[in-house]
Amino acid sequence: MKIAGGDILSFKVPTVCRIEDGNDVELKKLMQNFMPGYAIIERRDLMMDAMKEGQEAMDALLDYLVVHHDCEQDVDGHVSWRSHRKVSGWILPIATGFHGISPLGQAKNQRHPEFPHHFAESVVTLGEFRMPHRIHSLNQILWYYQADLNSNLYLCKQREELQPSIINGH
Predict the structure, then answer these.
(1) What residue segments make up the domains of the chain, in order of their start?
(2) Is the pTM of this model over 0.85?
(3) Which tens digit of pLDDT belongs to each residue from 41-80?
(4) Alpha-carbon distance 142 to 34, whole Å?
């Protein structure tokens, strides 16, 4: 979208590199090329944990996005404000695919009459912008397509589940 929108006008030929699992030196060297940018990490784990505790999906999503503001007044009358979220990090909603809500078929005025039409809605979950120096594996930043035709799900997701130690930055 950045190229189509004209924000990116030119770019260098991409370099190809091979990094073996466990080669932290090469991974760190590669990640330095991405600074000062961010990588987006899927945080579906936050949604799953909240839903296991009985929260509805939309409530869980909003619960992680809301910013709470508290204030305290000391004995001298000075007020200090504090803002916090449920978890630390740059958490945001991201669309990761589509869920089919109708069977395949024909629809009036569909884009191409040769291909079957499918009404769908977006699948939204949580993501986190993370600095590249906090990336411990390339699988944390690579996204893969996955289609579950039985459930009418068409997703783009990450293969590596984040370990609690990685989530907390340790």
Answers:
(1) 24-167
(2) no
(3) 999 999 999 999 999 999 999 999 999 999 999 999 899 9
(4) 14
